[in-house]
Amino acid sequence: GTGADNDLYINQAIVFIEDAIQYRSINHRVDSRSLWLYRWYYSRTCQWILSLTITIILALAFIEKPSSLTITSDVRYRLPAWNPPCGLTESIELLCFLVFIVDVSVKSYLIGWEEFWKNKWLMAYILTLIVSLSDWIVSLSFFCTEGVRIRRILRPFFLLQNSSMMKKTLKSINSTLPEMASVVLLLAVHLSLFTMFAMLLFARTKDGQQDKEWVGYFRNLPDSLTSLLVLLTTANNPDVMIPAYSKNRAYSIFFILFTVLGNLFLMNLLTAIIYNQFRGYLLKSVQSSLFRRRLGIRAAFEVLSSLKENPANTQESYVSVRALLQVLQKVEMDSRCKQAITTSLKMCSCDQLSASQFQKLFEELDKDAIKQHPPSPEYQSHFMQKIQFAFGHPYFGYLGNVVALANIVSICVVLVMDADKQPSERDDFFLGAINCFFILYYLLEMLLKILAMGLKRYLSYPSNRFDGLLTVILLVLEIATFAVYGFPHPGWRPEFMGLLSLWDMVRLVNMLIVFRFLRIIPNMKFMALVVTTLLDLVKNLRAFAGILVVVFYAFAITGIMLFEGAVIPLGNTSFYIKKVVVLYFKEKCDFMDIFDRFQAEVIYCLFYLMSVNLICRWAKIYFVAWWLISSVIWVNLFVALLLENFIHKWDRRCHREPLSDIEYQRTVELMFRDVLEEPTEEELVEKLHKHPHLQLCR
Predict the structure, then answer these.
(1) CATH of domain 292-373
(2) What mean pLDDT is predicted for residues 368-391?
(3) Tens-digit pLDDT profile for residues 432-469
(4) So where are the chain's domains?
(5) Which of 22, 50, 422, 487 has the fewest CB atoms within 10 Å of its CB?
(6) Quick one: the chain helix, strand, coil %, rounded to 5?
(7) Which residue ranges does the record assign to the Ion transport domain (predicted)?
(8) What is the DSSP letter of 692?
């Protein structure tokens, strides 16, 4: 009936608008039952369950055998780690697999059979689940004693496929690889040529005393390549040059030329190429996201224009304001955008909206998120107004910065004076007294600012929240210190009491005071610009962090599979290297089981290897691959996005004056908004008519 059709059109419009908000594709089923399933799937509860499942299955690596549940990684002193019984982690894993099976089933049903065969990610999702379940069955059949578990390497895929931005980023990286390969090939040629020169320059001679360079670094082709590859990262500089330089100063020319050509030219050229190419591909990705948003809004207009209440004899399609208001009530969207669109509709003098008017309304989604600070309280008393003016003035904040600087200087003076003293010789009276004075000032400053600005306005500024939180923590610590150890006095060195000694409590207070000094950042324009750029990267470029997690996880699991059990302790002063793995960390991890535990592998080995300080024999392929992916490719990609974000913010700073009561917040899509092209009407209509499940009347 007419009522049922209208309800269907309303629900379709709701889903299409929500798709536009989230930059999702609208190529899914649009019947009543599928729409209900679609909204349920993308509800916060379902997405939270899916995210929790991905987190759990990734976290299993920390407790699976070999377990990372040990305090120390030193094989000499570490107690035997707790390993879960067979079937415990496998049961959790099976529950996660069941959630993923439901996930892929719902996704496949919603997009339809025809779209399923075009979606490579879904097909890879199903293949990953089949391989993982098969490996899980094999693991149980061997009673969890098998050495290789393929499904552990495949786990990061579940994180990857769940993020559309991560998939776009990966696609952009893949498109950039040909250009990067040319520079990497040039690096390889540079490395090979200088390796041959090195082997000729530092060849073995009759005088064994003069062959230190040959013995240590250029004994054969693999060692020569390795030495220069590490020099390319500056990890063994100047160690690799010292023997030759001691023999003849002229040999330094070789190493200087190699470093200048490799580091200053080729590596920076690689960064420039990655920045130029990757920015272009990411821009295309964001352009497609904009097209999806415009397409979703246009699809909502088309289905709402099909409502029976709209006049059918007009040449042009229209949507009634009343129908759109009804849709907006049910749409899950940001309250700021919803309020702005609703206000615009109520102020509109017409009852019908054309396609262009409809699209213009939803351009509110593309605007910066604006945070308006609450107004200050209005005092009637003339005295209170003067108080409000004095303590609400920026100069009062500058005075607080000066006091904080004085506190830092006093702490530095005391630390320098007490640097060489034994704990029993220290007199904590002076430091305790000045800390007490400064903390009381910080408390007074916070209370006066709240009085002048009002609590809501005070808390609306992130710098004030940061300052206030640290002030409260410092006050609590100071009260606890006085309650346990009494008030400061000359010769204040009481015995240890409670959880922390007096010196530990004072050190903790001093660290927080030093940390509190970061409050000066908002008052320094250029420093604030740099910090906000970094914060925006943290908030908006989660896709890069996700891809880094995927790479770290895959390499960590691979390292455990390849090198587990390579280090076996023999007493407290020696260890035995098993197999043919030769690992040395230059006094860094002589007794660290870097490949026997997932946590040690991730935290120390791979982070440390991003600067390349680990060399081994045949396992060099593993480490060189990690260096290429992490340091050469990923770090350069991060630098490219950092530059883009900073340049964008710098340009905006030059074109817009900062307003004290307004804060602007931008997403990655909005970062490129000024250079994006709007899709044409013909492109949108043509795409809508190709929708596999939506039949339009026009």
Answers:
(1) 1.10.238
(2) 80
(3) 778 788 888 888 988 998 988 888 888 888 778 888 88
(4) 177-285, 292-373, 382-521, 524-665
(5) 422
(6) 70, 5, 30
(7) 55-278, 397-646
(8) S
